[in-house]
Inverse folding.
């Protein structure tokens, strides 16, 4: 069965799962059950392009485990999307939901496409067709999509509208991460980036004996990277390097964050800024800094470059940016890694708030959302760090063990059907 999902991303996810299970007393059948997705769907999406020709795109929706509640996970639009990557991301969502103690199971979706190559109308037609194809397995109490790499609130709005038109009435809670005007949550756009910043601050205090500076380098300057930079700058950190898909910029004395924030809003490139030296994305990973934040794509820290890192701590804002081989090297070098299932869970947490607001038809203030987010991120870090100390394992192992155990316990209690 695992051959269906064979890919570097899925192999990495399974290796991490198996390592965590070595420290958990799980029955063999539970380990086997949790190693592969519960349900997968592959769809073909024919789309009429602006020039009149029809192009067929391949899409996926994977539900890894639904024991704790309806599936929860983003929709990714990227040329490299495949079944293995989506399955790996869905597995990670299961542990993330378990770790955050949310009533959700892990799911993920995606379409193999470069969204930048499509016009707005083509993007809408693709989104609506993809939504129509996965309709049988999504729903506000079945599986709730959200934005991910290459998607945004507008795409969630099209998904919500497509689902609602099919059902015959408006159902805001079918997706999260949608615009506020149609039932989205205040603070959702900032949530993942702010959550990363809160975790950085907690981790810095936790490791204060080995990390005494506040110089931050951020690879990836999309939604997560921008809000991480903004919040860290607001609370006194110095952003010395950032990058986007075209390259990056570095200034050891610090970059003007407010000017940086305007660049993606004006659809410019990071290297347009003149207040620093131009660097590549690969260069950014190895510059001297206190905190390295990979916030772009997966598997960027590998055994080939892990020994070259000159940071004091890695905080994973992206999903799966560090391979297991690289993890081993960083652990040997005493460079702590704050894992993705903890560090970037802010978006998931506020998605939960958004879903609750939609179900109750009662909406919160932004101050309440951000306050509740900060509280949950802080509590999550304390749980993981205390557990890591108690079990004498890394923070990644502690986070995975807590998340996996939550899911496994629920499955054990619910038993088997029939």
């Amino acid at each position: 069965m695992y051959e269906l999902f064979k890919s570097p991303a899925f192999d990495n996810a399974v290796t991490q799962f198996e390592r965590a299970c070595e420290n958990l007393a799980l029955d063999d059948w539970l380990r086997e059950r949790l190693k592969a997705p519960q349900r997968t769907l592959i769809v073909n999406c024919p789309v009429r392009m602006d020039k009149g020709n029809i192009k067929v795109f391949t899409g996926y929706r994977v539900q890894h485990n639904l024991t704790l509640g309806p599936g929860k996970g983003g929709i990714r639009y990227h040329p490299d999307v495949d079944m293995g990557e989506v399955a790996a991301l869905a597995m990670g969502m299961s542990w993330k939901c378990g770790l955050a103690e949310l009533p959700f199971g892990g799911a993920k979706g995606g379409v193999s496409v470069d969204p930048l190559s499509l016009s707005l109308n083509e993007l809408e037609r693709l989104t609506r067709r993809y939504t129509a194809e996965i309709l049988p397995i999504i729903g506000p109490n079945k599986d709730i999509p959200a934005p991910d790499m290459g998607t945004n609130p507008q795409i969630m709005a099209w998904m919500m509208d497509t689902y609602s038109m099919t059902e015959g009435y408006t159902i805001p809670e079918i997706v999260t991460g949608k615009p506020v005007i149609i039932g989205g949550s205040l603070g959702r756009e900032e949530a993942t980036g702010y959550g990363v910043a809160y975790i950085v601050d907690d981790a810095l205090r936790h490791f204060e004996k080995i990390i005494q500076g506040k110089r931050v380098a951020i690879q990836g300057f999309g939604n997560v990277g921008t809000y991480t930079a903004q919040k860290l700058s607001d609370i006194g950190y110095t952003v010395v390097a950032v990058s986007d898909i075209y390259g990056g910029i570095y200034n050891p004395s610090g970059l003007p964050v407010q000017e940086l924030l305007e660049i993606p809003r004006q659809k410019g490139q990071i290297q347009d800024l003149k207040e620093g030296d131009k660097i590549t994305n690969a260069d950014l990973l190895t510059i001297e800094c206190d905190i390295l934040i990979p916030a772009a794509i997966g598997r960027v820290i590998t055994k080939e470059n892990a020994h070259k890192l000159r940071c004091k701590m890695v905080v994973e804002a992206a999903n799966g940016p560090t391979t297991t081989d690289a993890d081993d090297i960083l652990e040997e070098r005493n460079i702590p890694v704050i894992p993705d299932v903890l560090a970037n869970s802010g978006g998931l947490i506020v998605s939960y708030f958004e879903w609750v607001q939609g179900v109750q038809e009662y909406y919160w203030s932004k101050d309440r959302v951000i306050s509740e987010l900060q509280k949950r991120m802080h509590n999550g870090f304390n749980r993981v760090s205390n557990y890591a100390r108690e079990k004498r394992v890394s923070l990644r192992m502690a986070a995975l063990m807590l998340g996996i155990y939550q899911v496994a316990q629920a499955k054990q209690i619910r038993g088997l059907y029939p």
Observations:
- The longest helix spans residues 366-391.
- The mean pLDDT is 95.
